[in-house]
Amino acid sequence: MAKMTLYYSPASPYARKVRVVALESGLDKKIEPVNVALTPVMPNADVDKHNPIGKIPALSAKGMDLFDSPVICEYLDSQHKRRKLLPRKGRDRWVALRQQAMGDGLLDAALLARYESFLRPEEKRWPDWSKGQMKKIDGVLDQLEAEVKSLKGKPTIGTITIGCALGYLDYRFSSHDWRAKRPKLAKWFAAFAKLPSMKATVPPPG
User: Fold this and answer.
1) Structural domain for 166, as ranges
2) Secondary structure element (H or E) that encloses residue 23, with its range
3) Which pLDDT score is estimated for 136?
4) 82 inside domain
């Protein structure tokens, strides 16, 4: 297989999700990582060449550019012969896809809250907006606590996404003690975070 190029940032939870999938599928050595710097107000020309939306992660493979983490992850999962991370059929598939949607939804809300408090000038910040995003985050966390049994077992695209989302909360929202009311989810994440693929992709301090 020809080398693939992944445009990413170590701090991006969506890129982390792709990197975990690459490690779990054994494709990491076939991917050339390119660390790029960008924000919604500071685009990156290299990323723009491979993703018209201007976001990371973006993957260049076989003369084709792929973007959006669910698309990239599904592509990677089609390129290896190990156990599939996206179950192919039945209830397991829909459970994994539903979990991925919850994890991505949590991340979407967390990124919007992060941008509001970090990128937007202080005099233009909207507290009710941030509260609304945190309400979405807590809603997902409460649902995950209620159905934590479904997270157990070998990693899937669903649990990988949720693991990366919880890791992002620890990284950027450490003051939001999500574990306090969700002991079962906290216990699951403590074990999941010990996976070599998760440990290898922990974002750097800062």
Assistant:
1) 90-199
2) helix 13-25
3) 97
4) no
* Together in a domain, 25 and 100: no
CATH number at residue 186: 1.20.1050.10
Of 2, 165, 166, 25, the residue nearest 86 (C-alpha) = 25
Q: Is the pTM of this model over 0.85?
A: yes
Kindly tell me the number of DSSP H helices and DSSP E strands found in the chain: 8, 4
Amino acid at 103: G
Residue 159 — φ and ψ, nearest 5°?
-70, -30
pLDDT at 157: 98
pLDDT at position 119: 66
For strand 58-61 and strand 4-8, is the pairing parallel, antiparallel, or unpaired?
antiparallel
- Give the whole-angstrom CA distance, residue 175 versus residue 198: 22
Q: What is the pLDDT of residues 105-131, one digit of tens each?
A: 999 999 999 877 766 677 887 888 889
HSE of 110 in the Cβ direction (CA atoms, 13 Å)? 28
User: Do 195 and 94 belong together in one domain?
Assistant: yes
